[in-house]
Amino acid sequence: MWAFIHKLGSPKWFYRISAKLQPWFWVAAAGLIVTGSLWGLAFAPADYQQGNSFRILYVHVPAAFLAQSIFVSMAIAGLVYMVWKIKVADMAAAVMAPLGAAMTFISLFSGAVWGVPTWGTWWMWDARLTSMLILLFLYLGVIALRGAFTSRDSASRAASVLAMVGVINIPIIKYSVDWWYTLHQPATFTITSRPAMPTEMWLPLLLMVLGFYSFFIALTLMRTRSEILRRESNKRWVRELVEEKQ
Amino acid sequence: MQVSDTAPVASAGVALGEPGGNLMVAITATLKRDLTLMLRRRGEMLNPLVFFALVITLFPIGISPDPELLALIAPGLLWVAALLAALLSLDSLFRSDYDDGSLEQLLLAPQPLAALSLAKVAVHWLLTGLPLALMAPVLGIMLALPAGSYLILALSLALGTASLSLIGAIGAALTVGLAKGGVLLSLLVLPLYIPVLIFGTGAVQAAVFGDGVTAHLAILGALLAGALIFAPWAIAASLRISING
Amino acid sequence: MSLRLHARKLACERDDRWLFQGLDLEVRGGEIVRIEGPNGSGKTTLLKILSGQLAEYEGELFWNDTPMRQAREHFLANLLYLGHAPGVKAGLTPLENLKWYQALSGETGNETARFAALESVGLAGFEDLPAGQLSAGQQRRVALARLELTPRALWVLDEPFTAIDRDGVAALEARLVAHARAGGSVVVTTHHELAASTALRRIQLGQGDNLAGI
Lengths: 246, 245, 214
What we know:
The complex is a heterotrimer of chains A (about 250), B (about 240) and C (about 210).
Chain A: H1 2-9, H2 11-43, H3 57-84, H4 87-119, H5 127-148, H6 152-184, H7 199-231, H8 236-245
Helix pairs in contact in A: 2-7, 3-4, 3-6, 3-7, 4-5, 4-7, 5-6
Chain B: H1 23-40, H2 42-62, H3 67-88, H4 92-100, H5 102-107, H6 113-142, H7 150-175, H8 182-209, H9 214-243
Chain C: E1 4-14, E2 17-28, E3 32-36, H1 43-50, E4 58-63, E5 66-67, H2 68-76, E6 79-82, H3 94-104, H4 111-120, H5 136-149, E7 154-158, H6 166-181, E8 185-189, E9 200-204
Parallel strand pairs in C: 3-8, 3-9, 6-7, 7-8
Antiparallel strand pairs in C: 1-2, 1-4, 4-5
């Protein structure tokens, strides 16, 4: 087990293995997202209340799922880096942060667009949207902190600590915002919590969620690989690799 | 053992010591040291309080002097302004220690760093959070805050600012090695302040409406307990990172 | 009980640059070890590793044959480190500064000892002045007073001679030798040439082994 973890921790090994894994996730992502969006946008029945505007859920929900999962993955990667000093974990955490921030932004933006037909306004201080906005700030904090250090080692460790502190706080923030919202706006219509959705509506959603996750994994692998090359550019194996390609 | 004549002080043989020593001695000395330092710079100590009063003055001017309207938003205003005032003084929490090298020495003390940093945070709360909480009722009067909620306002602020100091100290520790850490510190810390803000204003609003406030205060207490358990470790880890930045 | 700090194959990488690699080093009781090397060769970093501040290094570090990570508490109880910055609070008097340092090791100490320590570094009469009003050299002397006040076996001193006048330098150098003679040890970086002594050893950093790559 230990040997395996440290082997996985070697950038060189990770670079090789991720090259093999990466195409599968790209294929899965493309397949799932194309099928899911065609099904969801063209074939799933329109909502009895919201008509066709509900279809934005096929982007909004996967993006929101991913936004939260990426923060958790980032914190786990940070923990792995801090405890076992595995550099690849930190490289992954570094590339995940902007991706997570982008997903959070997408979910916020799609939520706002969705707000126009449902609430008649671009922004409501809805519990979920508010939590998402705070999550976006948390992401921006991690990214800014990483960028503020001149020493990359210190930047990595600081960002790891902040991600871990953030991940402990996310559930607390989420519950307190939910509580705050119910206090101020009792029983209004929230976008995503709704009575049981018919199968032909949630199946494409499931495909989209899985597709977004595959996309995230593929993109993280790809970007971690280039981060490895960038950070290890003076290591012998990278130089040999470059010479081979030339 | 032979000792050189030129030695300024003749030392006996050097023996290895055992770890030990009284942790309480170290903690009380750190408390006392920080208190002394802060009390010698009273002007700096007053700044957050003046800031608090100033921000509160801005709202009636910016919104409306109508007491009914002000009373409605007073709990939130008071809490947000107090939170910002507490934030203002955070950057200096570790900075002077970092600049003059005593932070390094603190890290090398044969005592747990988490406990020592907790002492520093306690002083920060004692000299910012607590005064802010005591001052808030006065500003509450100026915002026409309904009677009967003043005690809860002070109490919720006293409880809440303790959590704010603890959480904020993590950010201060992370940014102490950076030349321009101030704005970044706010960016890191403010999102984490939101739960405290929600239950803090919640308590005051409940008091205004005459609802029970125990639940709110209990949650504020729970948040504080959580912060007390986790924050010192995060502060210690962050300081170790910053000292080598 | 004798003192032994030794490192095997110590290497430190900061941001993909090897400051030093494969460094073997041993510090025993009665020795003064001077770390030498040009600017940027990692002297301060090495001192930070040897004083247990920096845990990010490769290789092994032992305190009395116990790995440092396990012996940390015992090690810190025997270490006195003085860094680039003197660690003297400008808002406190020299006496108050020393009092806090004593308390950090968990001792209340006594006022007479603190007066004596300040006197030994030539600060008699300055005990109750805010340290901010002292000169840089005097502030450094306040820090050096800790050498007298807190008996620790291992001294790790980063450029201790900075800002000190000639008499002070001579006294400090004599103090280092006396500490070594008494069985303690000193690890020091300095640009000041130390007088040759039987206790003195030199370790050179930055001699071509800072190549990148494995």
